Amino acid sequence: MKNINMKKFFLWFASTAFIFAGCKKLDQTPVDTATNEAVFSNEKGLELYANSFYKMLPSASDAHKGDAMSDYAARSQAPDFLIEGAFGPRQSNGWDWKDLRNINYFLENNKGPALSPSVRLQYTALARFFRAYFYYAKVRRFGDVPWINKTFKIDDPDLYKGKDTRSLVMDSVLADLNFACENISRTSDNSRSLITKYVALGFKSRICLYEGTWRKYHTEAGMASTSNQWLEQAVDAADKVMKQGGFALNTAGGVDLAYRNLFISTAPVATEVMLASVTDANLAIYNDANWWWTSATYGSRISFTRMFVNTYLNIDGTPFTDKADYQTMVFKDEVQGRDKRLQQTIRMGDYKRINGGTPEAAPPIFSYTYTGYQPIKWVLDDVKYDGGGQNINSISLMRYAEVLLNYAEAKAELNSFNDADWIKTIGALRQRAGITGGLTAKPTVADSYLKDNYFPLISDPSLLEIRRERSIELSLEGLRFDDIVRWKKGDLMTKTWNGFYVPELNVPMDLNGDGVLDVCFYQVMPANPVAKVNYINVAQTVNGQVNPLRLSKDTSGELTWLINTKRIFEQRHYVYPTPEADLLFNTNLKQHPDWVGK
Length: 598
Hints:
The chain has 598 residues and is mainly alpha-helical.
């Protein structure tokens, strides 16, 4: 099967030439009927048109950056969205409907006797999947939006309709999802670049979990009584994937490699990856992961916070934070004996990079990281990929691991999660990560660290552990901000960006335990610095300017990254405002109440 990215190119041509899919307005007049007939009277025409929907999926270069705004990501600057006065209706964007018109035009015209109903049904089902996908993105971003299931003529009064209720829109989304899941006949795709029945079911589990938990925790919306209906749908969809989809957790490479191989392989790891943005060197289709994750200037210099890294369990399944001295452990010691995903997610221990064919020790480097916890999840080990968009690893968009987590969380929210569910979801994920304890029965005691620092209102031990597992397993895969929104935990976005512990100034530290000193923190530069050690200034001011990198106790303590702009998260930040220009164009839309006057 041809690479889907090449298909996208042909489809872009087909869709723009035949139906003007690139038009932003909803009232674009269709082209002549001869062109319409050429597209809709044969299966190849339907295939070419329907493949244009795939451009709605994130590109590889977008997908690996999906958690750039999240609670566990310290970064060079706070997002404007979280800075008072920096973001409002004038800065908002995303109120774009051209993809929806492309889908609706297809649905209206995929009729007639030239093709069999069964052929047309497959493409209608695919189109309705993408309409659900489109609206899920719009509701997550804006809350209430208008439901549109037709193409508009220039004089159609509905061009100026107002927003519909969330209930109407999401019920329509669910109807589209159900139709797609029931009628997409393709059940497998070796390229992992096409929507199959089980990919559609996987997305249904994601969307229904989102909506069910959003309704449960956003009680001000008055929809909590309907949350269980959505959670039950999430369980049902995930269960079908688990029983019928033929996927499994990847174990090739053992506990030290199986997890990371999912993110650095050229071809998607078909055992577990359900959908991916696929690279192809023969077609010069790459992504920019190395450039973004290793550059001091191109990316956001994202580093994990210590508060998050503390949630990785010990290898025996006990909480790391149960150790009496965990708060003062230095980096090379605290990362030992932990969940094997930690060493496959950040620079630590014996991690090496290849330079000119030679593996070289690669401890965290402070020209990139602010906290010491430097991600490697999407980074190829060879430094030759670091400059520009040259990466050849495919980027996963949905994994079987997420389906397991969707299933576990929805069942826990429904109070129906049992030991058997634990074994096949959380236990299976932790076993793949090398964890040896707590795999066969759900927990009975709530972890105090998770409660105190993350979820003080959650008392169910299983739900706490499911959220821990989701955070770790799916880190940097673009789902974290959505999780924070649906859980109504926006306060996590304002937590201090803390890093590893520094016991004293002017004493060089070995970060990877290889006997070589790597970094030294100072307030006054030592007279005789040690060669090849990276010296980092943590004084209160540097050259008369406030220094954002400090130690929490001034001369010792956790690294603390204090950017000059205060991050805020208020009720309005659970949605984006409708863009001002669109409100002026259509006065019936009305601004989201939480953004009125902002």
